[in-house]
Amino acid sequence: MRVLVTGAGGFVGSRVMRMLAGQYELHPLPKGMAAGNPDAVLREVARVQPDIILHTAAISDTGYCQQHPEESYRSNVILPLALAKTGIKLVAFSSDQVYTGLGGSTPFAEDAPLQPTNVYGQHKREMEQRVLDAAPNAVLLRATWMYDFAGDGLPLRGNLPLNLLRAAQAGEKLGFSARDFRGITWVRDAVQNLPAAMQLPGGVYNFGCENPLDMWQTAQEFCKILNVAPKLIRQDWQRCLAMDTAKAQRGGVVFADTVQAFRQCVEQCRHR
């Protein structure tokens, strides 16, 4: 199967290119092409003639999107919509940020009434709606916050375990709220689940680790596994991005819970 991968040099896409190379005929979209020229992207699609487009490219920094909404809109709405209109099956990443603004602590299913409060979440939600209108067979994956460790030359971005390690080394404080709920996923587990995700029927799917703990508890558990002791400050502000992944599980997409998966990640990383 021929798969065109956008964002192939990024955090998720680079790991797709390495980990799935033996399973698919992978074609990376040339670096920088996705950023500003949908027409060039569509010409590349026509040249490659893929069976599936795996769209991992995005501007995912929520603060940057808030400050640069037009750039966010081009990247996070216009480009995936153009890809959806090619008629080729699209598998694209959305985000748990679509759940901002709902409150509570109960994990959300995909049919929760959404009212995202930040630009990134708003653009991802609009992308979902417009892509599915144009291509009902598209698979849209609402991903959690993801992490990985350094050591294999692949790109990194800010993530929970790295933040904890750096704070411990620098003697800095980190704050976490006992009323903040979300899943955290090892990016390699996400990539390993992509073959199953690419076989899902069209629709939106929560994608990643569930987490029964709040973020204050999660940070403490991660510290125990890492054997580090940064100064953690308990905060009291409310957010819920927790997701119910039962729909994806029925399609064969299965993750361990956040802490269990992190424990497995650390064990594997120690032996690689």
Q: What is the CATH level 1 assignment of the domain at 2-148 and 183-210 and 244-256?
A: Alpha Beta
Helix content: 40-55%
CATH architecture of the domain at 2-148 and 183-210 and 244-256: 3-Layer(aba) Sandwich
Q: What is the name of the CATH superfamily of the domain at 2-148 and 183-210 and 244-256?
A: NAD(P)-binding Rossmann-like Domain
Total strand segments? 10
Q: Indicate the structural class.
A: alpha/beta
Radius of gyration: 18 Å
Helix and strand string, N-terminal first? EHEHHEHHEHEEHEEHHEHEHH
Which regions are unreliable across 5 or more consecutive residues at pLDDT < 50? Answer: none
Helices and strands in order:
Layout: E1 2-6, H1 13-19, E2 25-28, H2 33-36, H3 38-48, E3 52-55, H4 62-67, H5 69-84, E4 89-95, H6 119-134, E5 139-143, E6 145-147, H7 160-170, E7 173-181, E8 184-186, H8 187-192, H9 194-197, E9 203-207, H10 215-226, E10 231-240, H11 246-250, H12 258-270
Parallel strand pairs: 1-2, 1-3, 3-4, 4-5, 5-9, 6-8, 7-10
